[in-house]
């Protein structure tokens, strides 16, 4: 297949907090699959500018940016196959975001549920937080992406990116493809180990809610052992009355590739203790290669990979930048 006919896939991850099993099974494992699929040209961006829209500590943030890159590499993103870079190292993101902001009615931003949720959680409002979806649209459009792997929580943002692409094309001529969401068939929805009604999350202050990708086997076993379940000792898939057990079945199915029904039948009787041990071992086995890769990678290697990625990303972004500048009347004088 030639580069011309390949579809461009773009996705981003914020460098905030530890990366966990939920993100891996729900999204990042699919990033690797897409990278290995010849039909796609993939671009993965660590969106550090987005992460600055909520309060943060600069030294911790600096460390988290590198750590996130390291985990993304360890989980299988190969810089020979994927373009991987840090958003802040490609200034064209910010310029395109500005241009797109002039096409964004504030009424549209007022309706963004993520923005409203963040304010409800007490995150202080600021202009960057408000225009977050415009920067996200710029990320996607800067690489003329056709497909964007995103979770449910990002669908509204992606819809806005599509509207902005169409609005730009209408006003200034065809520049952007309209990006479509890519919802993976095999993504698992992993819930918190402490509160199975909520998604496993990196922002939950209780570290027991999640299994981090760099947790040691012992820590994984402890976390799974203390996962909240129920008092009826039958292993059965029933998200209504047995959300904790259903979540563990979901995780075990995603990590072993075995159907939930088979697992439920195998562990139905025999108690939760035995079942949880099996779940923990399945997670340990799934994460072992990631953990080993993490121990191999040193900071200098990661920094070098990011430098090279930024250079390539800038080269690609500059072409689009010129096209956009010409289209909107900011061409060379
Ligand atoms: N908003 C996304 C999230 O929190 C991260 C993101 C930023 C993104 N830019 C993107 C995802 C572009 C996909 C495409 O998950």
Low-confidence stretches: none
Mean pLDDT, all residues: 95
Total beta strand runs: 5
Q: What is the succession of H and E elements?
A: EHEHHEHHHHHEHEHHHHH
User: Oligomerization state of this entry?
Assistant: single chain
Shape: globular
C-alpha-based Rg, rounded: 21 Å
Strand content: 5-15%
Helical proportion, percent range: 40-55%
The structure class reads mainly alpha
- Distance from first to last alpha carbon: 39 Å
Task: Summarize the biggest pleated sheet.
Answer: 3 strands, parallel
Ligands bound, unique:
tryptophan
Number of helices: 14
- Describe the strand arrangement of the main beta sheet, using strand numbers: 1-2-3
Structural notes for this entry:
This protein is mainly alpha-helical and 333 residues long. It contains 14 helices and 5 strands. It has a 3-stranded parallel β-sheet. The chain binds tryptophan. Residues 10-12, 14, 47, 50, 136, 139-140, 148, 150, 154, 157 line the site of tryptophan.
């Amino acid at each position: 297949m030639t580069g011309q006919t390949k579809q461009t896939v773009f996705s981003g991850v914020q460098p905030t907090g530890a990366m966990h099993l939920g993100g891996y099974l729900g999204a990042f494992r699919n990033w690797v699959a897409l990278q290995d699929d010849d039909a796609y040209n993939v671009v993965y961006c660590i969106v550090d500018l987005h992460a600055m829209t909520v309060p943060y500590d600069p030294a911790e943030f600096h460390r988290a940016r590198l750590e996130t890159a390291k985990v993304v590499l360890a989980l299988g993103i190969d810089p020979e196959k994927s373009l991987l870079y840090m958003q802040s190292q490609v200034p064209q993101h910010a310029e395109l975001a500005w241009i797109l902001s002039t096409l964004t009615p504030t009424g549209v931003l007022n309706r963004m549920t993520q923005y409203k949720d963040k304010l409800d959680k007490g995150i202080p409002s600021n202009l960057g937080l408000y225009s977050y979806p415009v920067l996200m649209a710029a990320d996607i459009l800067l690489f003329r992406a056709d497909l964007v792997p995103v979770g449910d929580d990002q669908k509204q943002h992606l819809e806005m990116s599509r509207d902005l692409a169409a609005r730009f094309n209408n006003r200034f001529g065809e520049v952007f493809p309209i990006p479509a969401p890519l919802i993976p068939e095999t993504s698992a929805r992993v819930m918190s180990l402490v509160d199975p009604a909520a998604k496993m999350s990196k922002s939950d202050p209780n570290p027991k809610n999640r299994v981090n990708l760099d947790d040691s086997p012992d820590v994984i076993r402890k976390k799974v052992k203390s996962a909240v379940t129920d008092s009826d000792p039958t292993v059965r898939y029933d998200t209504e009355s047995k959300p904790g057990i259903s979540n563990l079945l979901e995780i075990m199915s995603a990590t072993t590739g075995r159907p939930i029904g088979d697992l439920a039948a195998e562990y139905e009787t025999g108690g939760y203790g035995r079942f949880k041990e099996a779940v923990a071992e399945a997670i340990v086995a799934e994460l072992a290669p990631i953990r080993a890769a993490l121990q191999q990678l040193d900071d200098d290697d990661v920094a070098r990979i990011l430098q090279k990625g930024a250079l390539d990303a800038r080269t690609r972004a500059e072409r689009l930048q010129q096209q956009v500048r010409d289209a909107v009347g900011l061409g060379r004088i």
